Amino acid sequence: AQSVTQLDSQVPVFEEAPVELRCNYSSSVSVYLFWYVQYPNQGLQLLLKYLSGSTLVKGINGFEAEFNKSQTSFHLRKPSVHISDTAEYFCAVSESGGSYIPTFGRGTSLIVHP
Amino acid sequence: DVKVTQSSRYLVKRTGEKVFLECVQDMDHENMFWYRQDPGLGLRLIYFSYDVKMKEKGDIPEGYSVSREKKERFSLILESASTNQTSMYLCASSSDRGRNQPQHFGDGTRLSIL
Question: Which residues of A touch B104 (CB under 8 A)?
């Protein structure tokens, strides 16, 4: 069965600085990977997804993530963050041929300071 | 765009009450999910439904039941509400076209049991 680890529960950063949110997964088969964002008092919305092909995936709001199969990682990056990026970020994985139920990480709270 | 609508954003109930949380999606998705979100614990799956009248228990089904009489509607029922069920509840849906399909979330219901 797959598992997802988000190594940082909280990441504080200053506005306009770069940020990386880390996600590692464990699976013995091919996977599909997702990042979701949850703004305060809202549900989750899809930020980006890796299905196949190019390992660098671009998403909404200037975010991108890189799939690294050898390191079983899917880290999320943004070169310059804004105050409005303050939110909870969740990494999720689904296994090819597995259940329709994805496995979520516990989330990383990104706090952008002015 | 997929729209997942949860009937209430905020709800306050008393212990022992029977509580209904409603969720409706407008994209003809086969899969629907109920999650509970608590600080530090991430998303925990309560129940999953893959078709009308079909359901599977998730990680924390105790004290909850579900109903799916129509494809677009998935209800979560707290049979006898208790204070430890105070939480944020998130509904989600996804297509069964493949495990690479992302989930679409409602805005959540913040439930307080007094």
Answer: 46
